[in-house]
Design brief:
Strand content: 5-15%
Number of helices: 24
Radius of gyration: 23 Å
Strand order of the largest sheet: 10-9-13-11-12
Shape: globular
Distance between the termini: 67 Å
Helix content: 40-55%
Bound molecules: iron/sulfur cluster
């Protein structure tokens, strides 16, 4: 039997099937799976979608939705008597305000529609699905988001003919870097897994897209799942894995359906013999986008990041060597094999390949744009129809990247150039803010997100995220009522941020202070005492 179907790994699904964390569920699931009740309870309370089954409407409180009145909508929903709560980014920043009714995503939620529904949850209507991603650049693309799926298996056949060593060479020569945030060279990862003495290996797709401002993996899965499935098959055959696990965020209904259909089609046509695909839905925890937290969740545990080393390439899923890749990274693979590593590499401007940039906030057409890696903000926003209002600041790579000032608008949006500016490309979830936005308020939204999503495993992150959010709340309160004292609220900001950066286990805690420290660095006047 497949390892993931055994006792412990099935705990989250058993809790979900029993209706979430209700009285008696932990005991019942414990009996059924053989896992101690306390551990079952630990899982049930960890994941947002399992922990609060009484909440049936979750309204996104991410920055892009907040810019469109998400907090007011939440207050309105509660006033209407709906069982509503706020939630972290739902990867629909291009169609704010986003919400989740049970596990059904809704987009474009507005006050009028909400009022019309009254207290009847089922009457809530979603706006039209997100419009297709637009392309301003006519140059060749890696993904062809607007193109029909091509014949399955051609690149896979090529990979088999080349053999693993030459496939590794091709991936390395292409310069492909991980598109999930870290930017690690993909070729190095593939070789590391293949070189392990352990014969059982796994490939895992990280489709737990949750970084605020990011929705590119959603688009890829919906539009080109064929590329994702074929990329996974090529990776598995090259590193010697037979089982492929796909972990999608639980809120991804349409992406799940598209990926499942692509897997079924590949299986029906026996495109990838000897390989099995298993899809797994997450249950609402941003931290599971961190690869080792994802592996823990896949094993049926609380999704808490592991200490590294060992890295997953050595000891990953169920202790076996595991290749974990983001959706966009793996979807690059078929094109690299079919058109060659040099072709792929030359597509980029300051790095290899194209990049799927997400852009939301104050632009005319929020969406996903495939552009050469290294375009600047002005070029991206030109593709998205232009700025709305006067640019004041932007967040170049999700909440973890902090904010940059308008004069950085020509800096290349790539891994190295943004790191030099003390920021990061991350998942390329770009949020544009015009001069109507209170930047301290914007930083507060990001800090609240990190506080909510910290797994709580290490003290600097658990305590520090709350400390920073509370400090900003005190600052905002004093700014209105006692301006000369406002700056006192931020007295220990530097020490706390340093402690978090130095002593947190994973990237969440290491970067969680950046929304605030970047305001301090680039917009000191926003935090000055009058
Ligand atoms: S840094 Fe935060 S999210 Fe990461 S392991 Fe520590 S407590 Fe968990």
């Amino acid at each position: 039997m497949d390892e993931r179907r055994r006792g412990r790994a099935s705990v989250p699904e058993a809790i979900r099937d029993a209706g979430g964390d209700r009285p008696g569920v932990a005991r019942e699931v414990g009996r059924e799976t053989g896992v101690p009740e306390a551990q079952v309870h630990g899982v049930a309370t960890f994941f947002h979608l399992l922990a609060e089954p009484e909440v049936r409407l979750r309204i996104c409180q991410g920055l892009s939705c907040q810019l469109r009145g998400a907090a007011e909508l939440l207050a309105q929903a509660k006033a209407q008597g709906l069982p509503a709560a706020g939630c972290s980014c739902l990867a629909a920043c291009d169609a704010p305000v986003a919400a989740l009714r049970d596990r059904t995503p809704l987009v474009g939620l507005e006050a009028e529609g909400l009022a019309a529904a009254g207290a009847a949850l089922e009457a809530l209507r979603s706006a039209e699905p997100t419009p297709p991603a637009r392309h301003a650049d006519p140059s060749p693309t890696v993904f062809g988001l607007h193109q029909a799926p091509r014949p399955l298996g051609a690149a896979f056949a090529q990979a088999l003919a080349l053999g693993p060593e030459r496939v590794f060479d091709a991936i390395a020569a292409s310069g492909l870097q991980g598109r999930g945030g870290a930017g690690f060279p993909a070729g190095t990862k593939w070789r590391a897994v293949a070189s392990q003495p352990e014969p059982v290996r796994y490939v895992v797709l990280n489709a737990d897209e949750g970084e605020p401002g990011t929705f590119k993996d959603r688009e890829l899965l919906v539009r080109r799942p064929d590329l994702v499935v074929e990329g996974l098959a090529i990776a598995a055959s090259a590193v010697g894995a037979r089982s492929i696990y796909c972990y999608l965020r639980g809120e991804f209904r349409a992406p799940w359906q598209a990926l499942a259909a692509a897997v079924a089609e590949a299986e029906r046509r026996a495109c990838y013999p000897g390989l099995t695909f298993e899809l797994h839905a997450g249950h609402g925890a941003y931290i599971c986008g961190e690869e080792t937290a994802l592996l823990e969740a896949l094993e049926g545990k609380r999704g808490m990041p592991r200490l590294k080393p060992p890295y997953p390439t050595e000891r990953g899923l169920f202790g076996k060597p595991t290749l974990v890749h983001n959706v966009e990274t793996i979807a690059c693979v078929p094109a690299i094999l079919e058109r060659g590593p040099a072709w792929f590499s030359a597509l980029g401007r300051t790095g290899a390949g194209t990049k799927l940039y997400c852009v939301s906030g104050h632009v005319a057409y929020p969406g996903v744009y495939e552009l050469p890696l290294g375009v600047c903000l002005d070029e991206l926003v030109a593709a998205a129809g232009g700025y709305v209002g006067e640019l004041r600041a932007f967040s170049p790579g999700g909440a973890s990247s902090g904010f940059l000032p308008a004069h950085e608008r020509t800096r290349p949006l790539d891994f190295a150039a943004l790191a030099q500016a003390g920021s990061m490309l991350g998942s390329a979830g770009v949020v544009v803010l015009n001069d109507t936005v209170d930047l301290v308020w914007a930083a507060r939204q990001q800090l609240a997100f990190f506080e909510e999503e910290s797994c709580g495993q290490c003290a600097p992150c658990r305590i520090g995220t709350r400390f920073l959010r509370e400090a900003v709340d005190r600052f905002l309160e004093a700014r209105t009522n006692d301006p000369p004292r406002a700056r006192d609220a931020l007295a220990q900001l530097g020490e706390v941020a340093w402690e978090m950066g130095e002593a947190s286990i994973c990237g969440l805690g290491q970067t969680a202070a950046l929304p605030l420290t970047s305001i301090l660095a680039h917009f000191p006047e926003e935090l000055a005492t009058p």
